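Exercise 7. Predict the structure of PBP superfamily domain protein from Novipirellula artificiosorum.
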Amino acid sequence: MIPAPSNFNRRRYALFKTPAVPLLLFAVFSFSVPINCRGDESSTSFSVQEIRSLLNSITPYLPGQEVSAEVDIFGSTSMDALAHGWAGGFKKFHPKATVVISAEGSETAVDRLTKNPASIGMFSRPVSEEELEKLKLAGLENPAAVMVAREALGVFVNESNPLKSINREQFLTLFCVPDGETPSEPMVWSSFGASGGIANEPVEIIARGQNSGTQIFLQNYVFGGQVMREAKASYASNAKVVQALEEDKNAIGICGLKCGSHSLRLLGLQANDTIIPCDDHSVLMGRYPLIRPLTLVLDLGQTGARADANREFVRYALHQAGQSQSILAGFFPFDPPTLRGERAKLEQKSDGSDK
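Solution. The predicted structure, encoded as tokens:
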């Protein structure tokens, strides 16, 4: 029986939100392992069995009602492939429904939701109660944030970089400006243990753009609001980040664990000399620290055909078929107890009370 890592994740986000203890979780974890830290063949086989067992324990999707209206979903670029997978599966159950997808970044979804409350926003990060209150003040009647999948993030460098690992302090120094340091002060790779031709080369940070949920998640939840170093370049998608890392031998960046390529090296994570494998098993067991939820936001105060279609679409995402799509898109499903809790949010009346 796979434990419920979602509760572990909720505690983690609470810690990350507290500026006084940024990266408290990383006090337990420090990082060390090469790109093959994803685990050996037996570990991979075990992970496949775990995921199969987890999926089999998730309730199959049965339509609560037939819907035929348009579902308008927008936001996170990281969730674009997942949204298209959901759309294809959803239409098999609701052939008269139409799903329109627009991925321009998580942080564009807030403005679009206020203008189109009968829609669904995609956020590749947690959505706080404070943000939901702001949506209410902007005109939404009963906005709700529903976690629908999980993503593991990884720290990547070019394959030519000899560095195999970074510890917690190095992680902070690489991506945040330490107290008393000038933000523009250059870093070189020898400061982090790299030798050879790259030793005296500058560290070049490649990042996601400010409209991405990835960057907001890192800044607010992982680094606790610390000042992040200025990136050499920022991009709107994980694919562009990977391409930039492949082309720049001095580069380092954070993106989806499943987004790497054979031309990149995944820096491992280590705690007190204990290696944390960067593999599916570690993620499923709640051992891997860089995990974020993928979230859908909809206004439960809306009524009518489009509101019914929105609820049904999110219901689909929270059942077995929808969670299977999360795996195909390179993400991880939630455990059954968490999924039941998220589905319960959809049963609220328009005024926020239970049905």
